């Protein structure tokens, strides 16, 4: 085929891509235990002095759902501070949607404070850290 004929032919190629939604969580620091004192029992709650520090990485414009699973039988509910607004999590756990801004993969550093409101079955002592965190893309 002559070179002039090859130069005049045209080929179109359509390309599309789908980016899957992604969200991941990494715990950087969190207490390993909760100490309940007699003063905490009288007050009805215990404030955790050291925050849990986590990073959430997400690529969705809709944000992500941060889930809290309670694994301790000593608390009635927990108040979580350090998010867009304070969140109350029941003894059964719960979740809160968090907004995202911009596009592409974003990483958010969260410093989460906790107040554990004690259940009737709570007693003085040292308990394993009761909250397990997970995240999912919206």
Helix-and-strand structural type: mainly beta
Q: What is the residue-mean pLDDT, rounded to a whole number? A: 90
Largest sheet: 6 strands, antiparallel
Count of helical regions:
2
Tertiary shape: elongated
Whole-angstrom Rg = 24 Å
Tell me the total number of β-strands.
11
How far apart the termini lie comes to 54 Å
Strand content: over 45%
Write the element-wise H/E pattern from the N-terminal end onward: HEEHEEEEEEEEE
Regions with pLDDT < 50 over 5+ consecutive residues? none
DSSP helix fraction: under 10%
Description:
The protein has 138 residues and is mainly beta. It is 9% helix and 49% strand. It has 2 helices and 11 strands; from the N terminus they run αββαβββββββββ. The protein has helices at residues 3-8, 38-43, and strands at residues 23-29, 33-36, 45-47, 52-58, 64-70, 75-81, 87-90, 94-98, 106-118, 125-128, 131-137. Strands 1, 3, 4, 6, 7 and 9 form a 6-stranded antiparallel beta sheet that branches. A 3-stranded antiparallel beta sheet has the order 8-5-11, with no helix packed on it. The radius of gyration is 24 Å and the shape is elongated. 14% of the residues are buried. The model has no long low-confidence stretch (mean pLDDT 90).
């Amino acid at each position: 085929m002559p070179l002039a004929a090859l130069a005049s032919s045209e080929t179109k190629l359509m390309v599309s891509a789908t980016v899957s939604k992604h969200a991941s969580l990494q715990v950087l620091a969190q207490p390993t235990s909760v100490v309940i004192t007699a003063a905490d029992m009288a007050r009805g709650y215990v404030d955790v002095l050291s925050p849990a520090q986590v990073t959430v990485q997400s690529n969705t414009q809709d944000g992500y759902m941060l889930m809290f699973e309670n694994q301790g039988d000593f608390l009635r509910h927990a108040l979580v501070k350090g998010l867009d607004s304070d969140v109350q999590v029941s003894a059964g756990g719960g979740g809160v949607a968090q907004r995202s801004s911009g596009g592409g993969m974003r990483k958010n550093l969260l410093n989460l404070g906790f107040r554990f409101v004690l259940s009737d079955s709570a007693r003085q002592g040292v308990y394993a850290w009761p909250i397990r965190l997970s995240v999912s893309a919206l």
